[in-house]
Prior knowledge:
Layout: H1 2-19, E1 25-28, H2 34-45, E2 49-54, H3 61-67, E3 73-77, H4 83-92, E4 100-103, H5 123-149, E5 155-159, H6 176-196, E6 202-207, H7 215-218, H8 226-238, E7 248-250
Parallel strand pairs: 1-2, 1-4, 2-3, 4-5, 5-6, 6-7
NADP nicotinamide-adenine-dinucleotide phosphate binds next to helix 2.
Amino acid sequence: MRYLLLGFAMVAAGAVAETGADKPTVLITGSNRGIGLEFVRQLSARDWRVIATARNPEAATELQALAGTDPDILIEYLDVTDHPGIDALAKKYRDQAIDILLLNAAMGPTSQTAGRRLAKLDFDVARQSFEVNSIGPMKVAQAFMPNVEASQKKLVLAMSSDSGSFVAGSKVAALYHYKASKAALNMYFHTLHFETGRKGVTAVMLHPGMVGTNPQLMRFPGALKTSDSVAQLLVVIDGLTPADNGRFVDYRGETMPW
Ligand SMILES: NC(=O)c1ccc[n+]([C@@H]2O[C@H](COP(=O)([O-])OP(=O)(O)OC[C@H]3O[C@@H](n4cnc5c(N)ncnc54)[C@H](OP(=O)(O)O)[C@@H]3O)[C@@H](O)[C@H]2O)c1
């Protein structure tokens, strides 16, 4: 009888291992390219279960190719501005503990909007920047917080930027909407950490450095390789403890000034 029970237990454990449900799990927004895609690659290599979300999964060919090599990369539709869609995904994964919720997706400055002065500011772009960069991450955090609370690591991470810092941001009249929306994200997360701290969840804002995720950024002197930035961020993330709740840190683990 003892052996029979043990056999059942092993079959059950095998079933769990097959679905990857026993693995540490991360959910990443904007995982079809750039830093998000590299996180998928490096966490998959560590044998994590990766819920890799993208607003256009059909076009995410690199992500699809990666998922073809690892059954524990699960590609899901998630547009951070589609709040009913976010709730639907949270409902689908309601029984899944999520160790790291990585709020990475963002609307960066484009060459058309980056250098605009006051007279040329486009407030449709401003609204969209706040929807994607500030409100979207908070909505995803709201929807998936129970999953994070149910996990081992309990980390909710916002990919911020030095552009959201009064001190570290560039001292020029440029990137208005990007800077303002990342500063708003920082204040949202700063406020959030007073709540997460009471539940054992660690909320941290990250600055990945200047990373060459597109040809324009690659031209900047000192731009990091995407793989190097993510490797260093993972070292930082590995070392996070509840004492880091509310911190804004860069890829070297150094505290960013507000
Ligand atoms: N690269 C840097 O030097 C740098 C520096 C500081 C901070 N950061 C921050 O690091 C993060 C990643 O940067 P990156 O350079 O990898 O950016 P990226 O290459 O521009 O990629 C942005 C990602 O966000 C997605 N996205 C945009 N709007 C979305 C929406 N409404 N819903 C869901 N996903 C959406 C994009 O999807 P589509 O492909 O569908 O557009 C893409 O996957 C961002 O938060 C960025 O602000 C980057």
